[in-house]
Amino acid sequence: MARKTILSGMRPTGRMHVGHLAGVLSNWVKLQYEYECLYEIADWHALTDDPYRSKEIDENVLGMVKDWLAVGIDPSKATIFRQSYVPEHAELHLMFSMLVSVPRLLRNPTFKEKLAELRKKKGYTRLAFKMGELDVEKELEGALNFLRSENPAKALRMLQSLISRTKSEVLDRITTETVLDETAIPPEISYGFLGYPVLQAADILLYKGEVVPIGEDQLPHLELTREIARDFNRHYAPIFPVPEPLLTETPRILGTDGRKMSKSYDNAIFLSDPPEVIEKKVKSSITDPMKVRLKDPGRPEICPIFQMHRVFNREEAPVIEEACRAGELGCVACKKRLAEVLKEKLAPIRDRAASYSDDEVSEVIREGSRRAKERAIRTMEEVRGAVFGS
Known about the structure:
Elements: E1 5-10, H1 18-31, E2 36-41, H2 43-46, H3 57-71, E3 78-82, H4 88-97, H5 102-107, H6 109-121, H7 125-130, H8 137-148, H9 152-176, H10 191-194, H11 196-206, E4 211-214, H12 219-235, E5 244-247, H13 275-283, H14 304-312, H15 317-325, H16 331-355, H17 358-388
């Protein structure tokens, strides 16, 4: 029985970090033995955020693929290819773009998330406040009163609650404010940015991807690809499978500052970090802000350090959780143990990645792209025949 085809990919924005290892790469290694896997270096997608930083992409591609190989992605079992080396992606994207309305793209969750992210980066929180001032003065005054009365713990709890609520309201307004209002759309949003999910659909369907590994929260992102496949099959010819989601558990790995781990936030622990850097980053990471003293009971469920223990130190995690909740384990000792675990687990990955030369990695990408292009050409011959009758 033929194995089903999977297409998955990443944008080459930098080296891989422990969030990628836990959330994607470990799963890719397993899937390559069970499916026909194509792993895409999505360099055209990388241009949608900042097309003027394209000179960095080549270096990022090599570093990223070295990390892929180092964690166990095997180019003899999975096809590693570069999107821009297969121009058929662009041709299919163009054809699919004729089938998708602009209002449908504006409603797409991927676009709305990226719009919200860009608005945050560009200071569009001011827009949210203009839409209705948040009432924070009384709560701030209350927190200050507790500080004056030497009750910092109460003041901290009030400020945490205020920050959480304010962040939630602001992000909600940024995300839901009508995108058709010209003043609400950052000028950085390009035609390519809006069409990102259509190119993503072309990536999957060009190889007749049958399965897409995603987390449950990403299900709405796949729906546009499914709609495009059904629409094309109905109007032209039944060429494309309607891809099904392969729901995968994505461990929650936060950065050293408690936000999503990301190179752009400067809060990531990279697979290529040397031991002293890993130790420094873990040591500087935030923990439960309510656990101020050693014997204070902690809340592991909100602590980024404990989340990494759960993923990379599973055997000890239950003991660490119990000791933290009981106030028997301090944050310093907890961080020290995590640093030891990460240094031990990342050392062989870092060494393997360093052993690959740029030429070796380039050859892997060229050979994978050649194989991918052969499949893409066959698909596009079918597509042209169905659309133009030739």
